[in-house]
Design goal:
Chains A, B, C, D: Pathway: Amino-acid biosynthesis; ergothioneine biosynthesis. Chains A, B, C, D: It comes from Congregibacter brevis. Chains A, B, C, D: Pfam families: DinB_2, FGE-sulfatase. The structure is a homotetramer of 423-residue chains. Chain A has 423 residues and is an alpha+beta fold. Chain A has two domains: 156 residues; 237 residues, paralog of FGE (formylglycine-generating enzyme) (Alpha-Beta Complex), CATH 3.90.1580. Helices cover 35% and strands 11% of the residues of chain A. Chain A is built from eleven helices and eleven strands. In chain A, strands 10-9-8-11 form a four-stranded mixed sheet. A three-stranded antiparallel sheet of chain A has the order 5-6-7, with no helix packed on it. A two-stranded antiparallel sheet of chain A has the order 1-4. In chain A, α2 runs parallel beside α4 and α2 runs antiparallel to α5. The longest helix of chain A is centred in the middle third of the chain and has 34 residues. The two termini of chain A are 43 Å apart. Chains in contact: A-B, A-D, B-C, C-D. The interface between C and D is medium-sized, with 30 and 29 residues.
């Protein structure tokens, strides 16, 4: 990749983060309503820290950080780098102020562009390529945090009884949705995992063989209306529908519906990035945990897909998904909430909700993480989490690909996570 | 009290809160590092809520609040009014924004001044006096929250590894302090409790007789240097010096010194409202719990005073305390941290640190709280807390009086709470 | 006190513990349903440990313990002696077995009697008297644990859905009870605290002057029927009746009535040491916390007595209380549950329920604990607890005296704690 | 299966439970030192409850239980049956007494044998077979609880500072162990899952195809000595060796070695069912969590096997494992603790320690649980747990088979769980 190309991509990614923060009030930047929901200001600083830590400090002799404590404050979980400010206390960092964080970003952007300008002329090509690879990783990393920005601020604003909105707008409730249809796929020995020369994360490798049985996949995601029928049928009161740990979670957390659902004054509402909205029946249900997705599937007499099944189907239709294209061009409102499925072919692989699979997140056969602290990126999380596939309305479209492995704990609900069924 | 007088006092108190907030960054206004440490913005709104709830809503026909939910959001603990936003989540209210809260204050100030303008002409004098009494209570209430503003923001800023300061300045470490001296007082049947026609809180009443034995009282507070000797002598490792609940707290919280003390890089530091400072030996130790005060006294072979003893002495010297006078005229720096005792007469009753007594907070014989929700002000807290007497460097001087009963749980440390000994 | 006298008292006390354990199943001896409710086997061993630790080890040269680890296992809270087995894990000590504990008791009894036989002939009379004083303390200590035996096993058996009874029998529900009557007492400067030459605990000293206002005291305790009226009037749903910490406890613990009350199948039941019984309206309400006692008093428009008031009245009527006499002679059934008040004079000072006072437990002026570890007996608990006065149906009658200060946290309910009103 | 055969197997299994309880003190039967470690008495009752609930109540008209509350008290987790006594409070059931539980067992045994006597003559053969199938399931279920009996009582006795032993005996530390050797296996499309006409659990079905890569498997388990080298190399202080959740567990639980390891007085000890013993270097390390197994493997530069790999190897050598044969004939001492591996061929598949795999416990493709409450046996636990394969020294030998899927949470350590490596 040329210097120009990588620098352009770097600049565009960095600028996009500032753009998506625009609608916030200054007071929102420090908001953290749960340990998992980092403040916008922290995301802005941490993504900057990533470039500083893995590019500038090792590759720029004499590089000076603006503040040595940032190394601790904005380290997320890299034990190889050193101590970390406690995750649940990120919202207590009223300082550095937002202006200080903007200055930090500028300082690092400037140094990064200077560094990238040296790439073409480097004699040590291996180092030059390492430098490019890390920069690309930093860009992809920042894109991931841009998605987290949306889900974290949605969660944190949703904890305020005033239900402030992130942006003006309305959910698009006008699209009619047809009943779900099923497509059959033959089983056999297939290959999954990334293959190609563009970027992928280490957990998408190596490409390898796996055996699947024949199966059918639903053409679209489960809707709010369908999920309401599950609730109305006592879904949250019937232990036989749930995994044991899921049922314990339902009891402990007193769940009675998806996160962000709210019944108030006789109205069925949903908190969205555009504030409280009527729940539209045809829109995909979002913000369900893996346990809820699994219980819904059991209630419906079917099951969740495996990640191999999902990838197998997605790989065949790669590039053809309407929602993916739409989401790339969409205006802000479309970006902020899933839309209903319009047609009867395979829909909503990307651009609506992440789709829980029944597959526990574990290493592919032969998986090897990178050397050093950067190797903590994915590998160490390979226990107790479930794989989600696809992408959501707030996923940067450039990250939508068949092999991408997202992962969360089965009790997590603050992502735009939904349900696609298999049988 | 005339309309002019009460209005002036109202305006002065309201303006003082804005003035003491001036040094903050906007991001600091929402900061809450513990359940007990409310954000500045919340204090600004809650003190406003008090006037709205107890004056405007009952006395101004047709009064319109800016936002009906403020009734819940800014209710501290008045069950008689209704529900309360959870105390530990005050820091999650990024909205209303600070501008919104300023608008709320202006809205209420305007309505209050209009209401107060009606007082002189009211035919129903009982109502007029109730109105004045509640306004005075609201003013005293706001003064209390101005003290909490200082101790809460000190606690919350102190949770940031950058240790940001509230204002510039330095601790005054130049005053020489003489060894403690003791004054003897005769016991007998005395009277305590408020007597007079100015304001007092309900818990200072009724004035009543109580019997005390003869005793001696220390002329000044325990200093940092003296407290360091207690630590150096193993004070925090010797259970025999502690109350059982205190020792359990030391173990559970891993206490090894007062809150805000910090040993770093070979230096003995103290976090102050002026940032990290060298600990000055002659300055009174502050931010100790009742348990620590009690353990120190036991180590020193003496004890804490009772509240009756303290008040008995303070009443005799009322109006004569040098620190009290000083603190009224003091510049900001003096306001922000206790100073060393200068002389050998009775010192530091007010203006340095609150002084733990050994007396559990309970009603005076014949105590009767006010009717209605406003009666929740003091009475319902009369269990499990200890009485502190005097006043601190951040106490509004107008609240320094011999009969004032402050109270906190014996494990609380975030106030400017210190130690005066008796024997 | 002569050797014979002290030895006799020692033997009688030790034997009584074995006698009151008789009705248990072997499996009950290890039962601990909460951290505060120690198993019978532990009480049997700990009271033995007390004699071993404070008498045998210091006064018998060459004394050999059966097992050195008992020093840790059966130490309750004496930091001056050394480490303690965690309080909440006493129920996990299946070994030593009950037979081992009986052997431990016999071993210590034998050594104690040998030691006591030396008292009369000792030349060092100071040591001889210290030896007697400690033995008396050990006897009183064991009597206290005999009371705890009853309340602890009642609590632990009550956690079993089978509600097993400790002994056969029935509550005496036949005594008619007259409405409460009030007696007036003049205020003034009085004296409280132990005065005499028999035994008292250190916390009953020194006798000292205190001033009380005139007051009235109820002649009997609040009954189940009267307490039911409080519940029926919404007592547990009205925060204005409660101290703030009490209300928080009601919410957190979901209290809706006294401990051991049970409404089942349309019946109003009460778990007693004789199993589930109908709740009799005339019997004193027991197993209420200090918070509940205080809330009941507020609902009734009166208040709890102070400990000085209670002692002042009790001292005047000392020796005249009918219940006290009754309880000494009572058969097992009477011993196991309070009975209704029979007359209209002052009733139930002892022998029914401990009576919550509004007084926080704190040292009397001039209080000085004993030297050494034995000084941990009372003094270190003088914070956060409330004083109860009188005695209950399971209190050894020898401990019923006007000056006895019992103390528990205001949330504690597992003692036979009831309510006497004052105004 | 004939009536005689099934009755014999029933009786033998029931009697074995009484036999293995023999060494206990009566007080040990109620012991529960953690929520997961049920008391022996509860195991004895619950296994009885299983036959009563799934055989006697549905198949024996007019069957009378001894006590209707046993349905709740001894229900482990079957929501389809009804409520359950809280798991963590099983140790609080001092009643029913052990004698009562023995009577319960006899009552149910008698009724079961009468029921089984009817099988041969039943006209409804489908019902007869269901009856046999459930009885077999009940027998296998009781065998599983016999294994839990050993690990639970070991855990509970190990919480006692006296470290009481279950039986007399000594660990066999005399067997020399050769360095580990590796055997290579070809990858390919294989089949796993139970195939045959004897008993298997539902989670071993259906037999299905899966694809594995070529791999090597260690011939024996990791030893105490090898694991000590991991500790000595800082294994518990190096986060890079651990999964993120594992590292968090190490920090939270302050782990520094396997459960039941104890360094005391300069000695390296291990608590065993025969009391405290010297740790023998050649004996397999036991009582490690999945996280520790995984970290050890990473430190050793290899990995844990998948369950498919393990089963593939075990299926080839089925019936040939020396340890399996040994364990069947072994005396008590061998039964109570793993022994060292003697040879260089494939060792210790069974009879020493369960072996953690890297495979998350999830349903085989096409898995279908039984209908009704009995279907809760395995399926609902298929999240967040890891598969272990093989069997331990306390596993009933009849349950040792290549397809058996054991499962525990990766943080669990109280089973005899060890480490076999793959690469």
């Amino acid at each position: 990749m040329s210097t120009d190309s990588i620098s352009d991509r770097f600049v565009a990614t960095r600028q996009r983060f500032l753009a998506i923060c625009q609608p916030l009030e200054l007071e929102d930047y420090g908001l953290q309503a749960a340990e998992f929901a980092s403040p916008p200001k922290w995301h802005l600083a941490h993504t900057t820290w990533f470039f500083e830590t893995f590019l500038l400090k090792p590759f720029v002799p004499g590089y000076q950080s603006l503040e040595s404590l940032y190394e601790v404050l904005f380290n997320s979980y890299y034990n190889g780098i050193g101590n970390q400010h406690p995750r649940g206390q990120r919202g207590l960092l009223s300082r550095p102020s937002l202006q200080d964080v903007f200055a930090y970003r500028e300082h690092v952007d400037h140094a990064m562009l200077s560094l990238l300008a040296t790439v073409d002329d480097r004699e040590d090509r291996q180092e030059a390529e390492e430098l490019i690879a890390r920069t690309v990783l930093g860009i992809e990393h920042e894109r991931q945090h841009q998605e987290l920005f949306f889900t974290d601020i949605k969660f944190s604003l949703g904890a305020n009884p005033l239900y402030p909105r992130y942006v003006a707008g309305d959910v698009n409730a006008q699209i009619p949705t047809a009943p779900v249809s099923w497509t059959a796929f033959d089983g056999g020995l297939i290959e999954i995992g990334y293959e190609g020369s563009d970027f992928c994360f280490d957990n998408e490798l190596p490409r390898h063989r796996t055996y699947i049985e024949s199966f059918e996949l639903a053409n679209r995601l489960v809707t709010n209306g369908e999920y309401q029928a599950f609730i109305d049928d006592g879904g949250y009161e019937r232990p036989e529908l749930w995994l044991a740990d899921g049922w314990a979670t339902v009891q402990r957390e007193k769940w009675g519906g998806p996160l962000h659902w709210l019944d108030s004054g006789g109205q069925q509402l949903e908190f969205t990035l555009m504030g409280l909205q009527q729940r539209a029946a045809a829109i995909p249900v979002a913000h369900v945990s893996g346990y809820e997705a699994d219980a819904y599937a059991r209630w419906a007499g079917v099951r969740l897909p495996t990640e191999a099944e999902w990838e197998h189907v997605a790989a065949m239709s790669y590039g053809l998904d309407r929602n993916q294209a739409t989401s790339q061009d969409s205006a802000r409102a479309a970006l902020c909430h899933p839309e209903a499925a319009a047609g009867e072919d395979l829909q909503q692989l990307y651009g609506a909700c992440w789709q829980w699979t029944q597959t526990a997140y574990s290493p592919y056969p032969g998986f090897a993480p990178s050397a050093g602290a950067i190797g903590e990126y994915n590998g160490k999380f390979m226990s107790n989490q479930w794989v989600l596939r696809g992408g959501s309305c707030v996923t940067p479209p450039s990250q939508a690909r068949p092999t991408y492995r997202n992962f969360f704990y089965p009790q997590d609900r603050w992502q735009f996570s939904g349900i696609r069924l298999a049988r």
